[in-house]
Amino acid sequence: MSPRAVVIVGAGMAGMRLADEIRRRDPDGERVSVTVLGAEPGPAYNRVLLSGVLAGTMSAASVTLYPPGWAEDHHIDLREGVEARAIDTAARTVTTECGTEIPFDALVLATGAEPRIPPTEGLSGEDGTPARGVVAFRTLADCLRISAGARPGVPITVIGGGLLGLEAARSLAVRGCAVTVVHPVGHLMERQLDTEAGAVLAKTLTRHGVRFRIGRTAARYLPGDGLKLDDGSHVPAELVVVAAGVRARTGLAEAAGLPVAGGVVVDDTLRTAHPAVYAIGDVARHPGATPGLVEPAWEQADVLAGLLTGTDPQARYRGTTVVTRLKARGVDLTAMGETTTDPDDEIDEALRLSDPARGRYAKLVLRDDRVRAAIMLGLPDAAASAAYYYTNDVPVPEDRLAVLLGRALPPAAPAQDPAALADTATVCRCNHVTKAQLTAAWRTGAADAADLSARTRAGTGCGTCVPLLRGIAGWLAGREREAS
């Protein structure tokens, strides 16, 4: 019996993770053959870490997800730089830009999203491509283009004060650029933060060399000169970096007649309206997924791999509990849940602490003794505590203030001492790796943090768990020496 032919359109973080998950369940390709089409040239990379490349603290090579030859070694037909142009759902074929038809039994759309360029005069050409001196911050190629123009003292304007825009702005400030962020909303990161937290964050980033024009919209772009804002003021810019949101790449799906609503609509099996076509990652729309974050995509890949290989036919994607972290040097910000509350709400219990002079702000929203939302800026211990109670949905202690200040770290929260960390504690949230899994990997031959990462994927997502991962590796090595 020939293996089931699975074609994945998209070789980014979602598509390649799916291919990896399939091969973890079907190492020799006996159940499923895998073909991956990637429009971008070059190997897959970790988009989450691009701010480090932009800051100059990481190399482009260091964010590569898989080593050369990995796909071939794992019986995956990876076609880099090959774009899919059409889907024939009746014939069950994908046609590439070269005219090659690839048959499939199951097709997975993992085409991701593309940056949205605001309708500002002069910002883009008639064909929609960015004008000279304008770069959208989305891909590794974009990152390298921005880096090439990021010389010390050069005025650069970032359009967008969301998560990605602020990471880009802080990275450019690290390189000595004169950075200004133009954000049309009244406070930064409005999707994750309340007004007060946004103000404290702006003050903190200002200390780190980032200027802000909040509540202002770019009205016109003059190449080589800068931006004219809606209030008539001028912001100089030799380079404009756009981080003003994205839109799902749904062209293939729409042309194939699949339902689209801000993304390709999928059910809990990640299936579209066609029984042989699925979608995951930023291109998919599921009510339980937050677009633009990698964790939902990787959870979806895990579920779909179980379904496509038949190893877990009951697998379902029910949504992802998201914890958002801003990756900006010198700024520790974590947000989770719906943080906007009504002061007269008798159901939710909200606690706040604001210390703008020291760049600290904390907000904890409780319901039925459980964390329903939180914002933690400049309080890493409190962030660890809140994230534990939020993701595990367990009751918080009676002393609410201790939780708010990070003085009531639960037994399973990430701790500085690996020995004190419970086996059930989640070390890597992106990949759901626990201390027990790391210990098991060590017992089966892992020799250092790199080995632990390779065997479990811990540390390959946002990177915030890497220090703890190294600490656990050192602790395991010490225990091994003591035992011998």
Describe the structure.
The structure is a single chain. With 484 residues, this protein is α/β, with parallel strands linked by helices. Helices cover 27% and strands 25% of the residues. It has helices spanning 13-25, 50-55, 70-73, 140-149, 163-174, 195-207, 251-255, 294-309, 380-392, 400-404, 435-443, 449-456, 466-483, and strands at 4-9, 32-38, 76-80, 84-88, 93-96, 101-103, 106-109, 113-115, 134-136, 155-159, 178-183, 210-214, 218-222, 226-229, 234-236, 239-242, 246-248, 264-265, 277-279, 284-285, 323-328, 331-337, 349-355, 360-367, 370-377, 426-428, 433-434. It has a 5-stranded parallel sheet. α1 (13-25) runs parallel beside α8 and α11 packs across α12 (449-456).
